[in-house]
Specification:
The protein has six helices and six strands. Helices cover about 40% and strands about 15% of the residues. The two termini are about 15 Å apart. Strands 1, 2, 3, 4, 5 and 6 form a six-stranded parallel sheet that branches. The protein has a single domain, classed as Flavodoxin domain (Rossmann fold). α5 links the parallel β4 and β5. The structure holds flavin mononucleotide (FMN). Flavin mononucleotide (FMN) binds next to α1.
Length: about 190
């Protein structure tokens, strides 16, 4: 695995979202040996099993294909009422189906998140990790990257402006690469 292909998405639809800014910053600062494509969850409809049974919407098919063709996922979650936002949970719910052939199965995932508060998405990240594990994804345990007081680390457009956080993000992406290679080697052993 010389080149690791990552897919990054954030659980926010907000134009100047801090979390979308995090994913953009990660994509713009990938270390050698990594590419990171940014995915937008805006087109994914609310999960409805009747709709799924009638045939997955094109936006869901595209999302699942993007996950499948990536070696690893980087997910940035906002925190809404001490949990992950519905946008993100909904996207995971679609991608988790059907369970036996879900593209999330065995997929290496790293989690991060930013919020203006001091709790810095700790609860949302914990909830996201728990849900992702149940889909069969391989959630990277460490390092953690929680960003609080986001307004002082991002500009008004949601662009990351803090070099220390950018460095921590690069470290997280590098760790995800190592985690992905380790899981791949385990799988072929
Ligand atoms: C419905 C709602 C609930 C929220 N609850 C929390 C919360 O529990 N903890 C927190 O740190 N921020 C909370 N916030 C503030 C968000 O962290 C803030 O809006 C943040 O900018 C969202 O992420 P984004 O910038 O990526 O869109 C909440 C915001 C909304 C809209």
């Amino acid at each position: 695995m010389d080149q690791i292909k990552m897919l990054g998405f954030a659980g926010s639809l907000r134009r100047a979202s801090y979390n979308r800014g995090l994913i953009r910053a990660a994509a713009a600062s990938t270390p050698p040996g990594i590419t990171l494509d940014v995915y937008d969850l805006a087109e994914i409809p609310l999960y409805n099993q009747d709709v799924e049974d009638a045939g997955e919407p094109a936006s869901v098919v595209a999302f699942k294909l993007a996950i499948e063709s990536a070696d690893a996922l980087l997910v940035a979650t906002p925190e809404y009422n001490h949990g992950m936002p519905g946008v993100l949970k909904n996207a995971f719910d679609w991608a988790s189906r059907p369970r036996a052939s879900s593209p999330l199965r065995d997929k290496p995932i790293a989690v991060t998140g930013a919020s203006p508060g001091r709790g810095s998405t700790a609860r949302a990240q914990a909830q996201l990790r728990e849900a992702a594990v149940f889909t069969g994804a391989c959630v990277m345990p460490l390092p953690e990257l929680l960003i609080g007081s986001a307004a002082s680390h991002f500009d008004h457009e949601g662009n990351l402006i803090d070099p220390e956080i950018r460095a921590a993000l690069v470290e997280l992406v590098g760790a995800l690469r190592a985690w992905t290679i380790r899981l791949h080697l385990d799988a072929v052993a």
